[in-house]
Amino acid sequence: MPVKKIALFDIAQITALAIAAIYSVAMYFLIRAFGIAVTRIAYSLCFALLFLRIANHQYIQKDFDPAKQLPFHLCSYCVALCFIAAMTKSPALLSIAFGIAPAAGALALLFPEDKAAKYPRLRFRSIEYYFSHINLVVMPVYTWRLLGFAPQFSILPIFIIVYATMLLIAWAVNKVTGGNYMYIMRAPHSAPLELVQKLFGLVGYRLIVLVGACSLFGVTYGVAALFAKFLKA
Predict the structure, then answer these.
(1) I need a labelling partner for 206 at 20 to 30 A (CA). Which of 28, 83, 104, 161 fits?
(2) Within 10 Å of residue 148's Cβ, how many Cβ atoms?
(3) Can you give the pTM of this predicted structure?
């Protein structure tokens, strides 16, 4: 059956985002009622779906491509990071997850990858993609607002080390597979980063992506601080 890719803020994307919003509201009340157990279940499902996605391509679709379908993009890293943070309740990992996962998840929802963004019928990749990314957006925020977690901006140096490690692993995998994990080798098609590479070249693009990730971390904390101050006013 022919499929049509979602365009920015077309009916298909608005519908997908509306479903994600309804899910977010439901999770808010569930976490208020049952606490961190709900967060752990949600992240466990996201983590399991990472491996089910690989199994789906390997054994059902039979189109597994190590250059495209391994979990080495930023959001896949964030899923693993959030899962470990929720299970251990590590302040450092929770702070890193809070600083990067919501922004990464939101950008992925606005600019979904090709296979996740094709309709008209729901498919495993679409469900897995939207479920994982909406959890990346809302769960760190709910952990902060509902479960008493206090983000630590002082963790920024550790975040930089963790992020650099992600990049190094992705670069090594790219060299072996010919992939483009973390979009290190080139900018993703049909996304704002493609224009950045055209304007500044590959080296400039890579530097801007690195600085941008650290800036998103800071912006997330700045917004959180302003929001907390507003609530106390």
Answers:
(1) 83
(2) 8
(3) 0.87
Q: Are strands 118-119 and 4-5 parallel, antiparallel or unpaired?
A: antiparallel
pLDDT of residue 134: 95
What is the reported pLDDT for 216?
Answer: 82
What the block records as the tokens of 12 is 């298909």
CA-wise closest residue to 67 among 57, 80, 79: 57
192 to 104, 109, 196: CA distances (angstroms): 14, 14, 7
Low-confidence ranges of the chain (pLDDT < 50): 1-2, 120
pLDDT at residue number 226: 78
Q: Is residue 49 classed exposed, middle or buried when 0-12, 13-18 and 19+ CB atoms within 10 A define those classes? A: buried
DSSP 97: H
Rounded to whole angstroms, how far apart are CA atoms 154 and 219? 14
> What pLDDT, on a 0 to 100 scale, did the predictor assign at position 2?
43
- The CB-side HSE value for 215 (13 A sphere, CA atoms) comes to 6
The gap from C-alpha 4 to its chain's centroid, in whole angstroms, comes to 23
Query: What is the DSSP secondary structure assignment for residue 187, as one 8-state letter?
Result: P
C-alpha of 206 from chain center: 19
CA dihedral of 140, 142, 146, 149, whole degrees rounded to 10: 10
Q: pLDDT tens for residues 34-86?
A: 999 999 999 999 999 999 989 988 888 888 999 988 999 999 999 999 999 99
Q: What angle do CA 168, 110, 215 make, to 5 degrees?
A: 50
